Amino acid sequence: MLDSIRKTEQEFDVALAAAASHADLEALRVRFFGRKGGAVHALFAELKAVPAERKKEVGEALNQLRDSLEARLREKLDASAAEENARKQARSSIDVTLPGRTPSFGSLHPITIVRREIEQIFREMAYSIDPGPEVETDWYNFEGLNFTPDHPARDTQDTFYLGPELLLRTHTSNVQIRTMEKAAPPFKVLSAGRVYRRDEITLRRSPMFHQVEGFFVDRGVHFGHLRGTLEHFMRRVFSPDTEVRFRPSYFPFTEPSAEVDISCPFCHGKGCGTCSKTGWMEILGCGMIHPQVLRNCGIDANEWSGFAFGLGIDRVAMIKFGMPNIRTLFENDLRVLRQF
Fold first, then answer.
1. What is the per-residue pLDDT across 109-158, written as a single tens digit (0 to 9) for each?
2. Nearest to 192 by CA among 127, 248, 243
3. Domain that holds residue 124
């Protein structure tokens, strides 16, 4: 029995020396002093089997073992608690001799900066702002805008459908139909927001991007009003010396339609890799609102006319801030965002 007592003490000393944390010391306490399975408690349980003439000697040895081990354990627990308390105080203390820490401030995302700039330009031209819903019906996104039932844009390979009638809008032109249905002309509206198409992520494409749609309906509106509006806008958002050209194109909801190019802001029209050596960059599509679109919304096309245009905010941001890759706008890299 005395040999077991000496062996238990030796094991305790080894375990106590190896204990490096409060958790280790707690595990040590349970191992030696636990009510169930504790080594010291087990030795006391064996005392009843010791012959009567030796019980006093063995009992005194057990009491000394218990008191000695408890004292050593308590001493190390107190030392561990003191060290932890010192570390906490060190972490919470303030060294007034250190230089102050400049607080970090958030900033607007480049997409938001460009969107707000575009909205402000058109507010100055008396346009109202209506972002419109991102979840839309087929009528407002396609049919009301004169898309035929077999138009490729309606294909599930191009559009995110949420059900038989609901989809994620593929352009902000849905606001055009909503406005013309609920309000009587004249009106000038700009809609800016997120749109969605089933595109692969490339240097210049993303399945989610940002678009601006503007339209103006009034008596006597003609293509000259559209051209003047867009030339003013381009020279405000880019630079006063920006050249603008119109090329014939086709869109289901405008007639006549045009693509608009601007002189390359990187080479100023001389030709570079960014503009494929042409000196021009395509920036938006536009045209006179198709008479059938007006009739779809209950507007007399013989009395009223209008124009509409749409452009990508992401494309404008890439040009303004010199970003060759559209993914830079969506990666949330703080090294990029801190520049704005």
1. 999 999 999 999 999 999 999 999 999 999 999 989 988 787 777 776 78
2. 127
3. 110-337
Residues 125 and 231 in one domain: yes
Give the torsion sign (CA, 292, 294, 300, 302): negative
Q: Which two tokens stand for residue 133?
A: 């819903």
What is the spatial distance between Cα 248 and Cα 259, in angstroms, rounded to a whole number?
6
Residue 99 covered by a domain: no
- Whether residue 131 lies inside any domain: the answer is yes
The secondary structure element, H or E, covering residue 263 is strand 254-263
Taking only Cα atoms into account, the Rg of the chain, rounded to an integer number of angstroms, comes to 39
Tell me: do 144 and 275 sit in the same domain.
yes
Question: Which pair of structure tokens corresponds to residue 281?
Answer: 């960059």
* CA distances, 43 to each of 29, 70, 73, 292, 296 (Å): 15, 15, 18, 99, 96
- Asked whether residue 152 falls in the same domain as residue 72, the answer is no
pTM: 0.66
- The strand pairing partners of 216, in sequence order, are 188, 307
Higher pLDDT, residue 5 or 77 = 77
Whether 319 contacts 281, CB under 8 Å: yes
Same domain, 51 and 134: no
Tokens of 178: 């909503």
In a domain, 104, yes or no: no
Q: Residue 298 is part of a domain; what is its CATH number?
A: 3.30.930.10
Q: What is the pLDDT of residue 306?
A: 95
pLDDT at 6 over 80: no
User: Is residue 101 included in any domain, yes or no?
Assistant: no
Query: If phi over 0 gives left and psi between -120 and 50 gives alpha, with beta otherwise, what is residue 215?
Result: beta
| Domain end call among 58, 92, 126 | 92
Q: For residue range 297-317, list pLDDT tens digits in order.
A: 999 999 999 999 999 998 899
199 Cβ contact partners less than 8 Å away, ≥ 6 residues apart: 205, 206, 207
